[in-house]
Amino acid sequence: MTHALLWFRNDLRLADNPALEGLLRAGLTPIPVYIHAPDEAGEWAPGAASDAWRVRSLRALDADLRARGSRLHVLRGPTREVLARLVAQTDAKAVYWNRRYEPAIEARDAEIKRALRADGIDARSHNGALLFEPWQVQSLAGDPYKVFTPFWRMALKQWRLPALLDAPAALPAPPVLADALAIDALGLAPRLPWDRGFWDEWVPGEAGAHAALETFASGALDGYGSDRDIPSLRGTSRLSPHLHFGEIAPWRIAHRLQDALPASDRDGYLREIGWREFAHHLLHHFPHTPEANFNPRFDGFAWAAPTDAQLKTWRHGQTGIPIVDAGMRELWATGWMHNRVRMIVGSFLTKHLRVHWRHGADWFWDTLVDADLANNTLGWQWVAGTGADAAPYHRVFNPVLQAQKFDPKGEYIARWVPELASLPAAQRHAPWIGVIPRGYPRPMLDLAAGRADALAALAGIRLAR
């Protein structure tokens, strides 16, 4: 019996797992391991909400492995040293894993692969996360894309979905690693249960991911094109955290949706999958963008210097702008925010308040269960107007008009800002047009003045060209 380490990371599933499939096809006996080394992600170690999800997903993966006769071995880093120790301890001849694409992790993994191969170990990485590897889609000139539409057009020309692979019915029992830890020993679960509201909304793990896909395909997908922008409805897939943690493969989603109707709604959602692909394409080719503007013109932009009180007001949904407050409170309560509302709260922060997008990206990174470096970076640079294929900075979302358009009855606002639930729908969008209910703040700024200040700052960098 020849052993191989199966190194799990953000690929916490057994079905459609290329590393697992490759290992079994090679006739190797897998020793499943997870190595906790958050410091190796550099500045972007996982946030608190991600940790709260991860511990539950790891438990689910371990249960799935045990049901098949195996188990998950959990250890702490440094990763390179732990892998070398495990190879020696188990006499493993190979290490298989699925790739990650964050810059710090890519660099670390390349070093690990070189070191393992230098020691005579068969080190193999696979694509377990994307439909297209970040370097696979190129312009005719061989350059990376900076605009989504031509990127996706070229990607669709290469469209080839991998075959679906069910989880193995059984796995051989691995040797027990004496230094393995209990999952809870990693300390990922919150000491105080601030996440208790999350689990009314989410079921981490592979089974939860597959259930979410079926719920979407048999329900919300019908009408996705019209309902996805309405935050009071469950009109989106809610698959983003499952995708981030690799609890489901994007090609399984695509296969399932190709069998679902209508085509216009299906193709609209697949385009959203395309945005995720584009985000990883950009992060790979422009690895500086989680910290720096993609568009260097904005390096000279006159961002405001926010006070701690201003940031706290935004973070905790006390701005006095109902749709913004609703979104920030949804985030705090559930670890997630509707995508349309993400754009609204992002525009409010970066344009009306003129606060640098990094403040928003950092908060989302810590509080979102689907916090993904590629998506987070693309989203914030898009809404701030500083990124590739970004919304132009002069496009300033008016949060009142956005609420009137996408939450016309104020139902979303009433759910997350209950202080306003007794008001007529029209006043929920802008309570200052009447008497503001006791306990709800007045707006932290005048929206027209904030917009004017943002456009004046934009004019400043235009004049400086």
Please provide the count of β strands: 5
Average pLDDT works out at 95
What would you call the shape? Answer: globular
Distance N to C terminus: 67 Å
Task: Give a verbal description of the structure.
Helix 2 links the parallel strand 2 and strand 3. By secondary structure, the chain is of the alpha/beta class. It is built from 19 helices and five strands. It has three domains: 3-128, Rossmann fold (3-Layer(aba) Sandwich), CATH 3.40.50; 130-163 and 206-285, Alpha Horseshoe (Serine Threonine Protein Phosphatase 5, Tetratricopeptide repeat); 296-460, DNA Cyclobutane Dipyrimidine Photolyase, subunit A, domain 3 (Orthogonal Bundle). The mean pLDDT is 95. Helix 10 packs across helix 15. The chain has a five-stranded parallel beta sheet with strand order 3-2-1-4-5, with helices on both faces. The N and C termini lie far apart (67 Å). The protein is 46% helix and 6% strand. It has helices at residues 18-25, 48-66, 79-90, 103-118, 148-157, 206-220, 224-227, 240-244, 250-258, 263-285, 308-315, 322-334, 339-352, 357-367, 373-384, 399-406, 411-416, 425-429, 447-463; strands at 3-8, 29-36, 73-76, 94-98, 122-126.
Topology summary:
Elements: E1 3-8, H1 18-25, E2 29-36, H2 48-66, E3 73-76, H3 79-90, E4 94-98, H4 103-118, E5 122-126, H5 148-157, H6 206-220, H7 224-227, H8 240-244, H9 250-258, H10 263-285, H11 308-315, H12 322-334, H13 339-352, H14 357-367, H15 373-384, H16 399-406, H17 411-416, H18 425-429, H19 447-463
Parallel strand pairs: 1-2, 1-4, 2-3, 4-5
Helix pairs in contact: 5-10, 9-10, 10-15, 12-13, 13-15, 14-15
